[in-house]
């Protein structure tokens, strides 16, 4: 192959990531225009923006963890259920008695603990990630139901500090939006600026090469799932703040939204390639669509159909990107 | 051409036109000419053996024949008719079936379904189970294995059974020409005897067999004629298998036309300290009781056939495999069998399968090179990317990687430059030992000379190097000391100066399928 052809291919590869981000940004812009035109009085308001970002924040934090797991060559189906479990555990009467700080700690510990268990099963028990985390999905929901007796647990008034994440606003935005932003920035830095992030790409892209380069692939995999669990714990805090409850029904099907957002964002489901910015743009596209359908009083069924169509379109585009390389 | 020595069997008389006639076959791959004018003529009912060293072009030739590759030049005639099979399926329809070393069977399916995979007996899309099983049973009986049940799951069969299923599949296509690539490699002695019996029956029925094996005594036993390949050319065609002296065959296989530029050896000074010591290393089924040591500045070469345990020995030293017995010492201290420990203690490896085992193909050269040395550029996990890039760029310049662009995806580099990137990974950090597994595979001649010089320079700088190569001249030209391996055991150890290619090849090819460590599968 001659040099120009090689160069062309290299630039095509470099372009594809930036190009996808641009494409998602354009899609987001178009959706905003549609919103402003169809609902001029309601779409472009602070209230609506806050509600979109609040919705995005919960799944967004989970999507950050999911991006790491998928780039690292795995998948985590248990995120929604683990978040529910963390929210329930943190709002039991016993936990609430210790006050908000312990509740927050409890949510983080439960999330991370479940993630560690996922990681142990996958990395050291050599289970297929799909199966290990599917089992965790079922079991965590069950445990959440048992702990809460299938009742929605209310945040007690003296623990209102947690609710203030949703009610206290800085520059017009609730604190939980800043929390989400902080998680996103920290995630981006971790993925793109640290040894851990670099190794995540290696472990997902070619585990054998990573192992032969002296990387402890199993330990790294364990940490990836623990990280995803930690994100679920943070998401549990956000959902407690937004709904003032802990419930075993929280986060139903969040795993699908998070995985869809990661895929739309251009991360390869087989691992080794992907961006956090893409995942979050994908998530925003999804959230804004939901918002548009609600604002326009459209059927939620149609909303699901639209989301499905978007996933397919994004994957087809992704395949075209791959074809351009080979 | 030599006269055909008459053998019992179905070989057609020399006067008849050959069943298969390949002339002037050329196959060009990016960066390498795999076949450069090969002639092969096979008669109906004969066993025609194909001999040649690794890289001589045997695999490519049979892939051309079986429709997996299309030749760039030359003609293939089957029973006098020019053919150009565009796919393995097309070749099968013409009656050409290949049985590769890695059998292409579906483990989860029963024997009968595997045999008729792709040409199932069916009516209106419904499989005719009874008929399929009866036909499969007939084929298996014809192959001398009536005990294999058509309903058995293929994944549960032993290696020999799988081989028989593969052959049954070929027969189910009414193959006139059967290509067998090292069929005896995974078989025990008595199974080889049965294989030969089956081959004789097939040839008696007029089927022609193209037989590839490294084992000369097998070729003498089963073969009618021999064609020798070397560097992509047929250097001798149609030699009588039974009577051509071994020395002649070996000479044909080795007589090298292209002189490789091996740099001058600068032997390690006598007092150089021992860096790596391997004691009684054993991995059951792969290799047994391997001991040697390497001093600073020394290159030790391991010579042996594929399957002789060469690569596995390197991988075990490196900690990628756990030995059943024996140990590895680095600078006199035992090395735990983990790659993380090996890398931390200063061992680097360039594995055999560069793309599958060493490279992140989609990532940039820079990220590939720095992968093993990341902690060097990190403070509390935070990467100093400027320092990382500067070091990578310096290493790329040292090794003359072209183009010297750290941001280019490693996928877009040529084989030689990819290999240099793998070496750069280990040279970015201080290494004590470098393990090189087939460092010049898929590397063109010019880049080879550069890699040779590089390896010698590294040794000169005090590294201990262990080199594995299936090309004997490479081992002899580059190493100070050579260990000859056969079937997992060290059969000879000598300074490279005291060995020549013929002697090593003789040692490697001696012996039979029976070996102390031969395992099946």
In short:
Chain B: Residues 1-20 are annotated as: Disordered. The complex is a heterodimer of chains A (326) and B (521). Chain A has helices at residues 3-38, 46-71, 79-90, 93-96, 100-124, 129-148, 160-167, 175-193, 195-205, 207-212, 217-243, 254-264, 276-295, 300-323, and strands at residues 153-154, 169-170, 173-174, 245-246.
Explain what this protein looks like in three dimensions:
Chain A: It is found in: Cell membrane. Chain A: It comes from Actinomadura parmotrematis. Chain A: This is ABC transporter permease. Chain A: Its main location: membrane. The complex is a heterodimer of chains A (326) and B (521). By secondary structure, chain A is mostly helical. Chain A has one domain: ABC transporter involved in vitamin B12 uptake, BtuC. Chain A has helices at residues 3-38, 46-71, 79-90, 93-96, 100-124, 129-148, 160-167, 175-193, 195-205, 207-212, 217-243, 254-264, 276-295, 300-323, and strands at residues 153-154, 169-170, 173-174, 245-246. Chain A has a two-stranded antiparallel sheet. A two-stranded antiparallel sheet of chain A has the order 2-3. In chain A, 51% of the residues are buried. The model of chain A is unreliable at 1-15 (pLDDT under 50). Chain B has 3 domains: 45-254, 3-Layer(aba) Sandwich (Rossmann fold), CATH 3.40.50.300; 273-346 and 431-516, Rossmann fold; 357-429, no CATH class. In chain B, 31% of the residues lie in helices and 25% in strands. Chain B is built from 17 helices and 24 strands. In chain B, the strands form 6 sheets. A 6-stranded mixed β-sheet of chain B has the order 6-9-10-3-11-12, with helices on both faces. By secondary structure, chain B is of the alpha/beta class. The chains are: A mainly alpha (326), B alpha/beta (521). Chains A and B meet through helix 1, helix 9 and helix 10 of A and helix 10, helix 11 and strand 20 of B.
């Amino acid at each position: 192959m001659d040099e120009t052809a090689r160069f062309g291919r290299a630039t095509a590869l470099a372009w594809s990531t930036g190009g996808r981000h641009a494409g998602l940004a354009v899609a987001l812009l178009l959706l905003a225009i549609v919103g402003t035109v169809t609902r001029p009085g309601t779409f472009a308001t602070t209230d609506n923006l806050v509600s979109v970002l609040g919705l995005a924040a919960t799944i967004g934090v989970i999507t950050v963890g999911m991006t790491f797991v998928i780039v690292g060559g795995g998948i985590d189906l248990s995120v929604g259920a683990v978040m529910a479990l963390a929210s329930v555990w943190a709002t039991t009467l016993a936990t609430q008695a210790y006050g908000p700080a312990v509740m927050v700690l409890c949510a983080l510990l439960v999330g991370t603990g479940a993630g560690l268990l996922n990681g142990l099963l996958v990395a050291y028990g050599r289970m297929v990630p799909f199966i290990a985390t599917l089992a965790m999905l079922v079991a965590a929901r069950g445990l959440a139901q048992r702990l809460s007796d299938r009742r929605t647990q209310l945040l007690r008034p003296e623990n209102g500090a947690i609710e203030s994440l949703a009610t206290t606003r800085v520059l017009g935005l609730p604190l939980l939006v800043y929390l989400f932003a902080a998680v996103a920035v920290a995630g981006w830095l971790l993925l793109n600026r640290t040894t851990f992030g670099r190794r995540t790409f290696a472990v997902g892209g070619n585990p054998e090469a990573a192992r032969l380069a002296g990387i402890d692939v199993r330990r790294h995999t364990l940490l990836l799932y623990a990280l995803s669990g930690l994100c679920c714990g943070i998401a549990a805090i956000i959902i407690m703040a937004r709904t003032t409850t802990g419930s075993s029904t929280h986060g139903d099907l969040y795993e699908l939204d998070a995985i869809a957002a990661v895929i739309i964002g251009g991360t390869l489901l087989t691992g080794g390639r992907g961006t956090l910015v893409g995942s979050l743009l994908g998530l925003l596209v999804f959230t804004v669509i939901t918002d548009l359908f609600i604002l326009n009083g459209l059927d939620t069924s149609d909303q699901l159909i639209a989301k499905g169509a978007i996933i397919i379109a994004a994957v087809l585009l992704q395949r075209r990107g791959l074809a351009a390389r080979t | 051409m030599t006269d055909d020595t008459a053998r019992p069997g179905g070989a057609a008389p020399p006067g008849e036109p050959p069943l298969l006639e390949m002339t002037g076959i050329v196959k060009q791959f990016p960066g390498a000419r795999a076949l450069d004018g090969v002639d092969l003529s096979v008669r109906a009912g004969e066993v025609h053996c194909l001999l040649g060293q690794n890289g001589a072009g045997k695999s490519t030739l049979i892939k051309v024949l079986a429709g997996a590759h299309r030749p760039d030049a030359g003609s293939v005639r089957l029973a006098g008719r020019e053919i150009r099979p565009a796919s393995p399926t097309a070749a099968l329809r013409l009656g050409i079936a290949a049985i590769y070393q890695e059998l292409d069977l579906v483990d989860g399916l029963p024997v009968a379904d595997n045999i008729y995979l792709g040409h199932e007996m069916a009516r209106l899309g419904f499989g005719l189970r009874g008929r399929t099983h009866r036909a499969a049973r007939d084929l298996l009986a014809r192959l001398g294995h009536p005990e294999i049940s058509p309903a058995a799951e293929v994944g549960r069969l032993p290696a020999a059974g799988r081989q028989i299923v593969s052959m049954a599949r070929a027969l189910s296509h009414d193959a006139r020409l059967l290509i067998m690539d090292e069929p005896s490699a995974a078989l025990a002695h008595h199974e080889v005897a049965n294989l030969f019996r089956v081959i004789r029956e097939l040839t008696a029925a007029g089927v022609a067999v193209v037989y590839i094996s490294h084992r000369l005594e097998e070729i003498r036993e089963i073969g009618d004629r021999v064609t020798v390949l070397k560097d992509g050319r047929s250097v001798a065609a149609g030699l009588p298998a039974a009577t051509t002296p071994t020395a002649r065959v070996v000479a044909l296989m080795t007589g090298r036309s292209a002189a490789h530029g091996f740099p001058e050896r600068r032997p390690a000074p006598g007092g150089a300290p021992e860096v790596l010591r391997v004691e009684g290393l054993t991995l059951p089924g792969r290799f047994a009781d391997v001991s040697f040591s390497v001093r600073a500045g020394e290159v030790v070469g391991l010579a042996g056939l594929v399957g002789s345990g060469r690569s596995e020995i390197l991988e075990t030293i490196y900690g990628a495999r756990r030995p059943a017995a024996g140990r590895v010492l680095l600078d006199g201290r035992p090395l735990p069998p983990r790659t993380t420990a090996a890398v931390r203690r200063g061992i680097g490896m360039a594995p055999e399968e560069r793309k599958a085992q060493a490279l992140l193909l989609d990532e940039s050269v820079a990220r590939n090179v720095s992968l093993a040395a990341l902690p060097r550029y990190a403070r509390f996990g935070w990467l100093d990317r400027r320092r990382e890039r500067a070091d990578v760029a310096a290493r790329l310049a040292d090794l003359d990687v072209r183009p010297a662009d750290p941001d280019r995806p490693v996928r877009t580099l040529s084989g030689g430059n990819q290999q240099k990137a793998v070496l750069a990974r280990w040279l970015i950090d201080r290494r004590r030992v470098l393990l090189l597994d087939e460092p010049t595979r898929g590397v063109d001649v010019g880049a080879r000379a550069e890699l040779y010089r590089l390896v010698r320079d590294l040794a000169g700088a005090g590294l201990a190097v262990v080199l594995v190569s299936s090309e004997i001249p490479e081992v002899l030209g580059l190493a100070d000391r050579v260990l000859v391996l056969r079937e997992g055991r060290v059969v000879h150890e000598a300074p490279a100066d005291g060995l020549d290619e013929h002697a090593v090849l003789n040692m490697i090819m001696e012996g039979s399928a029976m070996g102390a460590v031969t395992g099946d599968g």
